[in-house]
Amino acid sequence: GIQVEQSPPDLILQEGANSTLRCNFSDSVNNLQWFHQNPWGQLINLFYIPSGTKQNGRLSATTVATERYSLLYISSSQTTDSGVYFCAVKNSGGSNYKLTFGKGTLLTVNP
Amino acid sequence: DTGVSQNPRHKITKRGQNVTFRCDPISEHNRLYWYRQTLGQGPEFLTYFQNEAQLEKSRLLSDRFSAERPKGSFSTLEIQRTEQGDSAMYLCASSTPPSWDEQFFGPGTRLTVL
User: Fold this and answer.
1) In this complex, do A102 and B108 lie within 8 Å of one another by their Cβ atoms?
2) pLDDT at A95
3) I want to staple B33 with a disulfide (CB 3.0 to 4.6 A). Which of A10, B22, B67, B93 is the partner?
């Protein structure tokens, strides 16, 4: 099946810093989602971005499907941004409904 | 605007007992998914429903696991004869046209098997 690799696995920032999280995938995809998992375990939708670039406030994301990667940018980080960020993809050639997740990036933003 | 809801939020049980979880998808979402997440890992797909039909089951879903969606609305996931290895967060998600691809997740049920 499709492989999803996220980097870095851990990231520690000071409040106000910027960061870039990366997601590489091993096959063609027709869906890519970024999630933020809060300390209570809730997965919060950040972006649905199978291709192109989107922005939402301090967050933006870019997916280059032909090169099999996606980037999540967080600017002016805040302590509330802390948590695990997951990338999840749906393989174009495989199951047309299941998402395959990476292992996540654990982000800690210190005050 | 209510999201996906799951009950209970936490369940502690003894090995060998049966447990049942419930998921209520976003209203009118006709696709419903179950995932399982263990510590330090991303969620893994378990099963998927299109309305009341269960269309796919992962190999992770052993014979002790059964899922239903009898009227195409809420779904239940039952684990029989629980084992310590079943301890995990069980997540439910739903989606609908026109963007069937974007899945929205519930808060999860955290299962601890003693």
Assistant:
1) no
2) 64
3) B93
